[in-house]
Model the fold of this input.
Amino acid sequence: MVAMRHESGSIREEPGVLAPSVPWDIGAQSQRQRILGAMAKSCADKSFPRATIADIVERAHISRATFYKHFENKRECFDAAVEAFLAELAATAVEAHSGADSPAEALRGAIAAVLDLLAARPAYAKLALIETPVIDPAPIGGYRDAVVEALEADWKSEKGSKRSGADARIAFGRAQVLVADHLAAGRAKELPVLLPELVYIALLPFAGHDDALKHATQGR
Amino acid sequence: MTASPSESGRARRSPEREPPEDLHLWKLPRGRHGLPREVVAQSQRERLLAAVVRVSAAQGYQATSVADVLGAAGVGRESFYKHFKDKEDCFIAANDALLGALEERVTEAYETPGSWPDRVRNGLAVTLEWFAADPDIARVMMIEMGTVGPIASDRFRVTFRRFIALLDDGREFIESAPDLPNLASIAGGAVFARVYEEVALGSVAELPNLLPQLTFELLLPYIGEDAAREEQRKATKEMNKF
Done:
């Protein structure tokens, strides 16, 4: 799934690592993505304040002039990278979410897919979960609110669901802290192992502690 | 959905709150002094620490220069470099000092004898009061630390882990605590995320009003729905005492 996404030309973690059969019309769009990938890498290595346009253009194998054709400044490029990655996260979650038998199963599928994507793109993951909240909390806040709204719609019609007093926005925060902590520790590859815990966190507000725990530990 | 404190709560709590004693240190001293040299050196260091906190909170760490810190502290450049290698060194030293003070207070509250949930609530109350007492300090510790670079980020993560480790005592006291490897992080993450949000929004004065809700969220993964609800009620009573 992850490999397919690479082939279809979505966000690339490795800037400049193009397949041998580069399409002849590889144009502005892919150039832009290469810049975004370079931005993510640069931030992952140095953090946003220390990332420089010189470093980004070098990583993306483009000229400074090309950079400024796409973006006015470093911040605009940063925002675009965050936006692109959050959009891809959302699309991945929605795709994995569809066709499940129950909201709980849908949630588990979506979380598994999101964890795979985060593990495959550690630089973007760090950009979105560690750098963004410091630079500008709005994009993650917006993403969180969209996720919470979608989940609430899912569970509204669910019979027998015991709404807990747990706050869904706080649940999102718990997940963010747990994942960010793993990313910061350089443990991106282990993220998929967190599936049971993230299922527990996500179900907590909607199914309550006991059922959330049951779902989390099923299949162990 | 998130408990937003009532207008009356805001009016009741804010004016009477005084920064805890050990935070007075961080108010920039003014005026001249006629003190012995070691005391001057010590107070110079403290002035620089206070200054880097105040200036970074106001204009952001990245936009802060050593000259800004010197100006705010009323200390000369030469003295600065006697105490610190560079701006980052000074900033991290300030954070370490603040963290040390916070950790001491939290640990003291947490180790006061009582039931485990009571101890957790006491530690939480102290944490919320701390961040509410001084918005500059809250901003520097939660947000600006994240803009400094790899050393500061590592420091930040290690500190979070240390606070979280305190909580994991819960497994000892709560036999029914779920067997999830990151249970303490799941519990503590609720507080971290909520405090972070208020600090980022600049609304730290509201934090102590979140005690009941955050007591519930913090204890929930360990003790379950009903018991956590009971602790929330206790926290509400506790809060209304003041």
